[in-house]
Amino acid sequence: MKSLPNFVLAGSWFRNQLPEHSSRPPGSTFDWDRILPSRHLQWRQCWEDFQCARLQVPMDWLGTSEEAGRAVDLALVKVEASVPVTDASYGGAVVLNPGGPGGSGVQQVLKGGHAIQTILSAGPDFDGSEANHTKYFDIIGFDPRGINNSRPVLNCFPNHLESAASTIEENAHGMIGTSDTSFDYLWASKRAMAEGCSKLAAEEGIAKHMATASVARDIVEIFERHGEWQANEAKRLIELDTALSGDEQQMIEDQTAYISGSEMVQYWGFSYGSILGATLSAMFPERIKRAVLDGVADSHDYMAGGWTSNLNDTDLIFAKMAEHCWEGGANCALWNVDGPAVIAENVQKVMANIMVDPVSVPGTELHGPVVITHNDLKRLSRAVAYWPLRDFPFLAQIVRSERAKRYLSRSLAS
Question: What GO molecular functions are on record for this protein (predicted)?
Answer without folding.
Answer: hydrolase activity
